[in-house]
């Protein structure tokens, strides 16, 4: 029964997470409710995200929604940020990271209102260099804490004028890179339960595949609305955790 629940959690969380980011904020507390210890829950999330994010990115790559060469340099910033963040995680108190998450998510939410979504803006092909520092910062945040990093990226790309499919493609590729280092680190530290990680991963891959096939039927405004709604939910949840309400 538990494996079936984990499989279902993987499908639902990754489906929503692929479209709007923030899937980890759904799967992590769900695993805690099932009795999975926190470190093992985080490790399972990173492990499943590595596979699901690459599988969804690969579909978009085959459809030529994104090109690999346009992702190499920005991907390097995400990877470097993820490594730096995982190294710094032990020195930063969890409450400090939650405050940082609140600030980043609030900024990301405001960012989506700075430029109205324009379907024609999907013609953009490459990420501007001004985005690279943000990618490093989001990667570092993912390495240190994680929840909402996909939402931050989706907010960033949509606000810059990229199409829904390109925004998802960029986000999933960078998520794949930032999760690799974290997953390897957790596994090397012994925080790995195959009976938890494997069914979650199987469900996550299916959820990711369903999402990339659904995304083409959604307008930029619809996805942006989902991103904003999930961002507000993340802000409220983190606020409650910090205030102890």
Automatic annotation (TrEMBL):
Has the keyword Thylakoid been applied to this entry?
Answer: no
UniProt keyword terms in alphabetical order: Cell membrane, Membrane, Transmembrane, Transmembrane helix, Transport
A cellular component annotation (GO) from this entry: plasma membrane
Q: Which InterPro entries match?
A: TM_pro_TauE-like, TSUP
Main location per UniProt?
A: membrane
Q: How does it sit in the membrane?
A: Multi-pass membrane protein
Membrane-crossing segments per the record: 66-84, 96-114, 173-192, 198-216, 223-242
Specify the superkingdom.
Bacteria
Q: Where in the cell is it found?
A: Cell membrane
Which family is it part of?
A: Belongs to the 4-toluene sulfonate uptake permease (TSUP) (TC 2.A.102) family.
Entry's PANTHER family?
MEMBRANE TRANSPORTER PROTEIN YFCA-RELATED, TRANSMEMBRANE PROTEIN YFCA
Protein name according to UniProt: Probable membrane transporter protein
């Amino acid at each position: 029964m538990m494996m079936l629940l984990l499989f279902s959690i993987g499908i639902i969380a990754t489906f929503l997470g692929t479209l709007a980011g923030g899937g980890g904020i759904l799967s992590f507390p769900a695993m805690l409710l099932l009795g999975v210890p926190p470190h093992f829950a985080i490790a399972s999330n990173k492990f499943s995200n590595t596979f699901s994010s690459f599988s969804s990115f690969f579909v978009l790559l085959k459809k030529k929604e994104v090109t690999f060469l346009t992702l190499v340099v920005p991907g390097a910033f995400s990877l470097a940020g993820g490594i730096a963040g995982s190294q710094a995680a032990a020195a930063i108190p969890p409450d400090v990271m939650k405050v940082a998450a609140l600030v980043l998510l609030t900024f990301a939410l405001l960012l989506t209102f700075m430029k109205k979504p324009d379907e024609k803006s999907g013609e953009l092909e490459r990420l501007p260099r001004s985005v690279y520092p943000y990618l490093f910062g989001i990667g570092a945040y993912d390495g240190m804490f994680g929840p909402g990093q996909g939402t931050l990226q989706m907010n960033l790309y949509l606000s810059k004028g990229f199409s829904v499919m390109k925004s998802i493609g960029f986000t999933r590729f960078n998520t794949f890179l930032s999760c690799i280092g974290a997953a390897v680190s957790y596994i090397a530290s012994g925080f790995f339960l195959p009976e938890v990680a494997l069914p979650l991963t199987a469900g996550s891959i299916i959820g990711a595949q369903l999402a990339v096939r659904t995304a083409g039927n959604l307008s930029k405004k619809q996805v942006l609305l989902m991103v904003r709604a999930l961002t507000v939910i993340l802000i409220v949840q983190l606020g409650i955790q910090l205030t102890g309400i």
